[in-house]
Write a structure and sequence with these properties.
Blueprint (H helix, E strand, L loop, with lengths): L4 H23 L21 H16 L6 H13 L28 H13 L6 H12 L9 H15 L1 H15 L21 H12 L12
Length: 227
Amino acid sequence: MGVDAQMDQVIRDRCRLAIELIKRSQSFEKDPRNRGGWRYGPDSRDSDLSVSVWQVMALRSARNAGMDVPKEMIDNAVDYIKRCYQSKRDPDGKPQNLKSACGYEPSRAPEYAMASAGLLSLQVCGAYESLEAKGSADWLKEKKIEYGGEWFFYGTYYFAQGMFQRGGEYSTYARKLVEELLLPKQGPDGSWQGQSGQERGAGKVYATSLGVLSLAVKFHFLPIYQR
């Protein structure tokens, strides 16, 4: 969204370079467990869900803007995200635990932030009705979520968006819960502050930005989350 056609072209050219970097990073030689995901460096041989979800959202944004994103990249990312979903699989590869969620990496136990990130990233990739997306939403609906928990603001951003995409009772439940958790903790100046772990030292801008985005889901300001 540049000020003129020339700036638009510059932005588009830079975005193409970014997509190519993301593509090269995903295709870097990795073992089957990590294939399809991303880590912190473009030449990383391992992957994790927290980095992968941001690459997925970048690719979805690029596709929404009319840029070329190979389907294979999205399919490989979905495969990685599904491997992060904690469940034994039947002979056809379907998860047997239909009320579980994603962990930070394959074989890691699910927890709030990554369960929420997994749910949203699957939906951003178009896997709205996958068994893993459904199971993640059910797991999150029964998860006790407390203000000040580990990676609370980071997780709540994903949680609010992901449950809204799920729709129906999930969207209603999440909206009410997020408001109940956040609104009483808002400071007199309108800000929020992280309470635990690394979020405690991240500052008010970080916590407030994620808090506002979590509360504003119902207004659908962000085009990337439109189905």
